[in-house]
């Protein structure tokens, strides 16, 4: 089975990646840098963030144009290796 045959996604496609971690002034920038290693560029408005109700946590959502399942897997691998990310979706 090829890389794109084991997914229901058709590439290229819009894909949102969400990373959550403790609220930190640099968290959004650091998550964005990780994604940019795998995506040549992000369009305006691709990065959004939302603090939790109490302000302790921050959710960063980055919408990309994904070109393959391998690209998405690599992004999630790097995010899971980043100690400030407690969850990624």
Structure at a glance:
With 89 residues, this protein is of the alpha+beta class. It is built from 2 helices and 4 strands; from the N terminus they run E-H-E-E-H-E.
Fold topology:
Blueprint (H helix, E strand, L loop, with lengths): L12 E10 L4 H10 L10 E5 L5 E10 L2 H12 L4 E4 L1
Antiparallel strand pairs: 1-3, 1-4, 2-3
Structure description:
With 89 residues, the chain is an alpha+beta fold. The protein has one domain (13-88): Alpha-Beta Plaits (2-Layer Sandwich), CATH 3.30.70. It has 2 helices and 4 strands; from the N terminus they run βαββαβ. The chain starts with 12 loop residues before the first strand and ends with a strand. The mean pLDDT is 93.
